[in-house]
Amino acid sequence: HMPIFYFVSGFFLYKELKKYSEKELVKKKFFRLVIPYIVWSCVAFSANAVVLIAGKGMDIGALLDDAVQVFIYARSVWFFIQLFFAHMLFLLIHKVVDKKALRVVINLVVWALLIVFCTTTIFCMWKIKWLYGFLLLGYICSEYDVLSKIGEVKQVKRGVIFFFCLVGWIAATVLSSGVYSTDLVYGFDDMPFSLNTLGIELSVLACGLTGMATIYFVSCVIAKFRFFDILYRMGSYTLDIYVGHMLLLFVIKKIPMPKDLVFVLSFIIAFFFICVPLYILAKYFLRKIKLYRMVT
After folding, report:
1. Residue range 245-272, pLDDT digits in tens
2. Interatomic CA distance for residues 93 and 172, integer angstroms
3. Cβ atoms of 196 and 227 closer than 8 Å
4. Most confident of 218-232, 233-247, 261-275
5. Whole-angstrom Cα distance, residue 68 to residue 45?
6. What's the half-sphere exposure (Cβ side, CA atoms, 13 Å) at 159?
7. How far apart are alpha carbons 40 and 75 in whole angstroms?
8. What burial class does residue 193 get, using C-beta atoms within 10 Å of its C-beta: 0-12 exposed, 13-18 middle, 19+ buried?
9. Within 13 Å and on the Cβ side, how many CA atoms surround 134?
């Protein structure tokens, strides 16, 4: 999902640059990415603090360590702060360089330098190595209207492309030795650059590319059926769903009961029939608060 997240962000970044200046976008990105990072990190730290205090008592050292992990090393919602830095880097290049072709070349060079030299764990910045490429890809696809051109391709050819993307996705997943399923598209990037791991990293990148293309083709088919319109409405709840499912998994792991299938299913059903209606009601009132609208 992170390759798609960065791709979509780059796709709409092109449209935003048509409406706003780089200076205006910096301000908008700060309020849309940094403020939510701070707010949700506070939520994560508060939840961790409750668990720590309940388990170990008031341990100031453990609380400070957890604060550093959450706020400095971005162990919670790292994608907010990292995407902010990715946007700032892209906007800086966009401001300095006027020619489109030269801008693409410089971005590719910068991306290569990130792959080789970016190993810092502060704000989880090592994850930007491969994800920055998806941001560039999204921007280029928007700038040159690539998706519309793909839509004009004959259905048989699109079917063939989809088949090769699907096979490539499966093959890349197998070649990456399970890295994709455990660490998305950045399995080894917290380690110093090495030619020994480059092949595996490239297969993980291919996994992200082919997987993203496969999902795009599937979504084009789904979009033709009105039955799936509910999926569009869920778009405004993606962050809530992400945080909610993490909290659900956290609670399930903490309950001192056998984790058999029946228990897990009954717990999930109870969660959806009790907690979800209450959450929807709370969401209705929270949407009236400006800060909540800003961070979601």
Report:
1. 666 666 666 666 555 555 566 666 666 6
2. 32
3. no
4. 218-232
5. 10
6. 3
7. 11
8. middle
9. 27
As a whole number of angstroms, the distance between CA 242 and CA 232 comes to 16
Q: What is the spatial distance between Cα 217 and Cα 141, in angstroms, rounded to a whole number?
A: 15
Give Dmax over CA atoms of the chain in angstroms.
65
Please report the beta strands in 216-260, taking only residues with DSSP state E, as ranges in sequence order: none
Cα separation, 5 vs 119, in Å, equals 22
The mean per-residue pLDDT over the stretch 44-67 comes to: 82
Are the beta carbons of 127 and 83 closer than 8 angstroms?
no
Amino acid at 272: F
Please give the structure tokens belonging to residue 78.
Answer: 């790292």
Backbone angles phi, psi at 73, to 5 degrees: -95, 5
- pLDDT for position 294: 63
Residue with tokens 């293309």: 213
**Per-residue pLDDT tens over the stretch 160-212:** 888 888 888 777 766 655 444 444 444 444 556 666 666 666 776 777 788 88
Residues in Cβ contact with 19 at an 8 Å cutoff, skipping those fewer than 6 apart: none
State the residue for tokens 């209705």.
Answer: 284
Looking up tokens 């299938």, which residue turns up? 261
